[in-house]
Amino acid sequence: MTPAELQALNQQVLWAAFGVAFAFGALVQRTGFCTMGAVSDAVAMGEYTRLRQWALAAAVATFGFAALAAGGILLPPQTLYASTRWLWLSALFGGALFGFGMVLSSGCVSKTLVRVGGGSLKSLVVVLVAAIAAFATLRGLTAVWRVNTVDRVAVDFGANADLATLLARATGMGSTGAALAGAALVGGALLAFALATREARRPHNLLAGAGVGALVLAMWWVTGSLGHLAEHPETLEEAWLATNSRRAEGLSFVSPTAFALDWLIFFSDASKRLTVGIVSVLGVVAGSAVVALARRRFRWEGFANTPDLGHHLAGGVFMGIGGVTALGCSIGQGVTGLSTLSLTSLVAAAAMVSGAVAGVKYQMWRLERDTG
After folding, report:
1. What pTM was estimated for this model as a whole?
2. pLDDT tens track for 123-134
3. Which of 41, 209, 321, 368 is the most exposed place for a label (fewest CB within 10 A)?
């Protein structure tokens, strides 16, 4: 492959990733898909429709990832979520902190980016704060705290720490069979919950859940297949083009916001390059803006008062720190990571839901206190 061909392929990966993210932003703006809203609906009103949308997205992504892996299109041990270490405490602490933060911020990072596209200035502030907190937790002060505390607590499996590996060890199944069995187990349970009611099977809800799941799979294909080189012409090593981790990555939005902010601030630095994560952030905002403008839903929005500002700032900090510590957001771990059957992702997703439940109850307590 010539340098020109390599550059052209890199551009294809970036444009494809932008397209997937654009579609994600447009879909979420159109359907109202929201993990925080799903938990809030369930806790405050006993309404589970949006939670079933999330379950459907995770089910589609889980089944699809297993199919891609079985077909040799993706190799699970070579994805961002693959590790021999089960970082259960990092996932538990970070996930709970992220979940609580996304309630204070009125939505997770992906939903906040969608709201930015719809004209929300307070969501823009939240994104900037989350990006700063995330960058500090990747490379700054809170990164030192993270590495020296929760990241030290882990279980080393000596092989990929995922459900498929556990099944293979327990049953003697081959890796492919165990991966398919694990996907059937987790994906099947999620799918059964997702489609349990007539309301959940309405076209709008199916579009929201299945659409998000399909876009997660599309991003897996972009980074894991389109951008995969068995041998990079310059390094002669296996490579995944335009990814920050230099491995196959999926849709995720906490660390990418930090990378995007870093890229913008140091734009003149020749070493800074566009990556899948950075263009994904831009794509979500653009896709949301197009739909909001087309539907005449674009509205400027600011903070209601000082307490509203304070809660959103705190939420942004919690999401930035928690998302990096848990290795992903409610989409990055709750759908993308979960699709790989990573044990860390399973803990992180559960912790995010638990943190969000605590956040909703805190908000309900505040409302009762202020109106009582």
Report:
1. 0.95
2. 999 999 999 999
3. 368
